Sequence to fold (255 residues):
Amino acid sequence: MRLISVGCSGSLPGPGSAASCYLVQVDDTERRWTMALDLGNGSLGPLQQVIELEELDAVAVSHLHPDHCVDLCSLHVARTYRPGYAPEARLPVWGPPGISRRIAGAYGADGPESIDSTLDFREVSHLDEITVGPFRVVFFSMTHPTTTFGMRVEADGRTLAYTGDTDDGPWLRDLLRDCDLALMDCAYVEGRDTARGVHLTGLRAARAAVEATGVRRLMLTHLPPWNDPQICLDQAAQIWPGAVELCRPLTTYHI
Fold:
């Protein structure tokens, strides 16, 4: 299984990265399967540097903040108006309750055009499981001001645990346990950000990964442009026993 970071900036696009968008890919004997985890603002542009839009098999959305979902509007435009691009079926998009209404509102689809004409929205709940080709995805409720799901993606004998946006909470360790790669929110910094129930710091992410047991790699992501990445890494390194990785845009990781 491969993880391709399309955009990993937190809260908004940064000067060197789009907002949250990650691809997971697996090759089977017949074809390559590609699924997107989130499609935040600014991400559809660099996504097209990585794959052709026709290659996208499905999208799973962690939550309905713009930096994780709003470029679904641009995807709809491409699937509707791009000359010579006429998909035979709607693209499956899984996400929290209200996702269809949220994206339609962001697009301004209050007239005859329906965004559902190209995107097949499917709502999920805590511990729901879906299958997309070789991918098995389980959704876990996270701790954030709006309904948010972490995603445990299993394929080809490997497991990716993606937290989306979260602070520490009751289901975080279940999401992370025995995963090959933990891709974790690190938007907050110890000693600077005091609000709780919103985001992890590097230290809290590392502590949760250690306590979950069996996590093989820790990768920090969702750093907003104003974070100093080295501070985030150093705070995580206080707890994490191995090397802490920093997610970088337009980079492929083998899991």
